[in-house]
Amino acid sequence: MTESDDHKLVLAISSRALFDLRDSHAVYMAEGVEAYRKYQIEHEDEILERGDAFTLVEKLLNLNASLSKARVEVVLVSRNSADTGLRVFNSIQHYGLDIARAAFAGGRSPYPYLAAFGCHLFLSTHAEDVRSALDAGFAAAT
């Protein structure tokens, strides 16, 4: 973490916690990764509905507007690949969320990226990722 970030809360969030990805996740579970990739690319211009943690993220980011200096940063960490993650970033832009940094793990757990982002808290719907983050010493929750 840089000196300028010393007093900034850095929250890492998974794409499934931020957005409702139940439909595309069902495709992944039923038909596999290639069908999921195709589905996400075919639907990349469709805006995702808000997920379970969306309101929390929105409120935390809105704190920055009332402060003289941004004190909250949200980073996206996702099991998606960069090409399947385009739909997620299109939705981030649609909702006006100030999320500029992301890691796409290409099907692997994204928790190893938490240290590189200087994260203080990791929110995910994937219990195994949360457990791994906790084991690595990060605050994390589903």
From TrEMBL:
Any one Gene Ontology cellular component term annotated for this protein: cytoplasm
Any one GO molecular function term: magnesium ion binding
Gene Ontology terms: biological process: nucleotide metabolic process
Coiled coil spans: none
InterPro entries, per the entry: 5-nucleotidase
Protein name (record): 5'-nucleotidase
